Amino acid sequence: MSSGLRVALIASARFPVSEPFAGGLEAHTWALAKTLSDRGHQVELFAAPGSDPALGVRELPVHRPVLSDAARADVSMPDALWMAEHHAYLRLMLDLVRDGRQRFDVVHNNSLHYLPVAMAPTLPLPVVTTLHTPPTPWMESAVQAQGQDACPVTFTAVSAHTAAAWHATAPEARVIRNGVDTHLWAPGPGGPYLVWSGRLVPEKGAHLAIETARRAGMPLRLAGPIGDRNYFEQRLEPMLGDGISYEGHLDRHALAKLVGGAAAALVTPCWDEPYGLVVAEALSCGTPVCGFDRGALSEIITPECGRLTPAGNPDALAALIPEAVQLDRDAARNRAEHFCSLDTMADQYTQLYEELIT
User: Fold this and answer.
1) CA gap 200, 77 in Å, rounded
2) What is d(CA 258, CA 173) in angstroms, rounded to the nearest whole number?
3) For residue 314, which of 196, 201, 157, 232 has the smallest C-alpha distance?
4) Is the pLDDT of residue 329 over 50?
5) Which of 14, 57, 227, 247 is placed for a possible disulfide with 199 were both Cys, Cβ 3.0 to 4.6 Å?
6) Long-range CB contacts (within 8 A, 24+) of 247-252
7) Residue 265 pairs with which residues in a beta bridge?
């Protein structure tokens, strides 16, 4: 049955699924849609306007509803972005209720929104929801309102850490880790600098990577979208210079070249990472990882391909860099190929779809 599955893939409505990606969720959604399509499945991606047209995107109707003056004046009126997203997912789910069975075999909710879960009982076909984050109140409410025994949604989690965090609400979540394109994230030669990539927001801890690099006496190149302008201007910009540079928001090809040319990748989260796509990308480039042991990072990193230390201590992390840069780059690449490749991820999702359909 693995050929010709018809998959409705629901993405986030907040950012387009296109390069340069706003974050790991958009990069993962793009890769999943592309890989399933390349395998001969029919994928319709419901995503924000501006998403990659090569993926066969069906734009989510992210438009503000036309509200009356009375509704807008109500004290419970949420902000415009929240209302636009709610309206978009509500319209999508009602469309799937009407004709989903004729168009699809399975719905895969890869968004962070609660409505695809809350309205799953109304759909005439299986629904998969991937848990990308720690528990959120809206999503927990959507699941609990249906009762754990009766919930019609099949949950997956991007790591064992995330599955454990959701265990009380979604105890049967199957772990399917996000995969990276090992062809695009090709092995690089390494080089004289360290690299940090990701969204430039406080919880990702780029400031700690800068402090670590300075203590280690090595240059550092940062790359990623500026998700928090105040954080970037007030905390990071004053730290740039003297070997520390910001390379910009790069597309995947440029970022892969940057990561592959580094001696090691720093990963310095100030929160519990649900997965850590930048770790998988670095390993695929053959670049060892040196990071804080938070969230799911220890599931990906082994002693052969990286070093971890308790979070929040740049001195301790800097002390590990001489070991990390000496690790075998082939071992890092081998870890990515066998543990977190796109093929591995696509195999597992396809198997799950087939189980639900049959």
Assistant:
1) 31
2) 35
3) 196
4) yes
5) 227
6) 247/221, 247/222, 247/223, 248/223, 249/20, 249/223, 249/224, 249/225, 250/20, 250/223, 251/19, 251/20, 252/19, 252/20, 252/21, 252/27, 252/184, 252/185
7) 195, 289
